[in-house]
């Protein structure tokens, strides 16, 4: 069965320009209105809300890029900033960011997130920044724990798990895969590094 999601959003808001979801929540952008929305699934009835249960607004083009994990999401304006939000133990999304990130060179052009790491592209700087969540305090870093650099619009595409990070350049067929070695937040390019002392994620 299909569900029509509807909000009273201004004409030309680009509602649905970016989408990301998990089993229980759907994150939707309306970046021309500088807003992102979350819709929720009712676990008891297995039906989806037709109006948002959460929204966040920001500067111009906010919601241009977004991504969602199980308990965290990230929203950027594709140019200078990104914010990470967290799901509370009670099942509601915080309206205050767990972390506010900023940078230059089209910072936030692409974003990716897990429940432990986030990656953000500065496209014109040919950089990808990785941020981490402290396993003890649960606090997110607001400065990168690692920076990857490249060329030819490095970071044009991103995809991330807790163990791997995929980065593609725009103007060539080159893509890079990084591995989180020993689960310690040290990401190394897979094609040039090997680790025989620990299994994946350990």
Commentary on this structure:
The termini are far apart. The chain has 202 residues and is mainly beta. The chain is globular and about 45 Å long. It contains no helices and 17 strands.
Distance between the termini: 41 Å
H/E topology pattern? EEEEEEEEEEEEEEEEE
Contiguous helical run count = 0
Task: Let me know the largest β-sheet.
Answer: 5 strands, antiparallel
Shape: globular
Structural class: mainly beta
Strand content: 35-45%
The average pLDDT value, as a whole number, equals: 90
Q: For the CA atoms, what is the radius of gyration? A: 17 Å
Low-confidence segments, ≥5 residues, pLDDT <50? none
The beta-strand count equals 17
Q: Residue share in helices?
A: under 10%
Please give a handful of descriptors for the protein shown.
single chain; globular; mainly beta; 17 strands
SSE blueprint:
Elements: E1 15-21, E2 25-30, E3 35-42, E4 47-48, E5 54-57, E6 65-68, E7 72-76, E8 81-86, E9 99-102, E10 107-113, E11 117-122, E12 127-132, E13 146-149, E14 157-160, E15 164-168, E16 175-181, E17 186-189
Antiparallel strand pairs: 1-2, 2-3, 3-4, 3-5, 6-7, 7-8, 8-9, 10-11, 11-12, 12-13, 14-15, 15-16, 16-17
Q: Could you provide a short overview of the structure?
A:
0% of the residues lie in helices and 44% in strands. It contains no helices and 17 strands.
């Amino acid at each position: 069965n299909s569900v029509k999601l509807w909000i009273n959003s201004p004409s030309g808001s680009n509602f649905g320009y970016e989408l990301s979801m998990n089993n229980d929540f759907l994150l939707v952008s309306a970046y021309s209105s500088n807003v992102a929305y979350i819709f929720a699934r009712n676990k008891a009835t297995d039906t989806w809300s037709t109006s948002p249960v959460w929204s966040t607004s920001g500067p111009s083009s906010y919601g241009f890029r977004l991504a969602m994990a199980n308990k965290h999401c990230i929203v950027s304006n594709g140019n200078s900033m990104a914010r990470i939000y967290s799901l509370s133990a009670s099942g509601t999304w915080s309206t205050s960011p767990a972390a506010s990130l900023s940078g230059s060179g089209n910072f936030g052009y692409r974003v990716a997130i897990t429940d432990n790491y986030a990656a953000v592209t500065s496209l014109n700087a040919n950089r990808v920044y990785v941020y981490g969540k402290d396993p003890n305090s649960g606090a997110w870093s607001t400065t990168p724990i690692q920076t990857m650099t490249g060329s030819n619009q490095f970071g044009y595409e991103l995809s991330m798990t807790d163990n791997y990070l995929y980065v593609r350049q725009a103007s060539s067929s080159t893509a890079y895969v990084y591995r989180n070695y020993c689960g310690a937040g040290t990401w190394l390019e897979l094609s040039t590094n090997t680790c025989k002392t620990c299994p994946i994620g350990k």
